[in-house]
Amino acid sequence: MTQTLYLMRHGQTLFNQQKKIQGWCDSPLTELGKEQAKMAAQYFKDNQITLESAYASTSERTADTLELITDLPYKRVKGLKEWNFGKLEGEHEYLNPPLPYGDFFADFGGELELEFRERVSSTILDLMQKETHQNVLMVSHGASCRQFMRSWAHTSEITHEGRLGNCCIMKYEFENDSFRLLEIINPTI
């Protein structure tokens, strides 16, 4: 059975607005973030997409985003969490190195890039292998979504440079334990 995964970044948060590094630390959605989630919900409605199963990371910002998109019961999954930025959590973004980050955050007690990529990718694969529904929503984080895209870049012709916007949706086809990126939707523009 071919399934569709809608992997999505959460709505804008207070720390996004304040340009603070936000990985495992959390901050609430802004009013704009709530509106972005409602626009994403409208995208699913306008395109007659019936979401049948849903997951969010254990961060409040992803659960709050998901709850504005669907009233489905959902599971919170630690493996979908954002990159652990170590001691730089909550600090200003000007402390970030230029992209790609590589293993920069490991020196501050954070995760190594490839370990982070493997955590997110194996979590999503495991969830989809167990999933029996056709249309699955997973709400995660910007770097998590980007690392998942990198894991499966070899199966897709779609590329995306720069940051993934808040509530950006990556539509994947999942078949035979393989993901293929079909489309990147930014319903908030």
Automatic annotation (TrEMBL):
SMART domains: PGAM. Gene3D superfamilies: Phosphoglycerate mutase-like. Transmembrane segments: none annotated. This is Histidine phosphatase family protein. It comes from the Bacteria. It comes from Candidatus Enterococcus moelleringii.
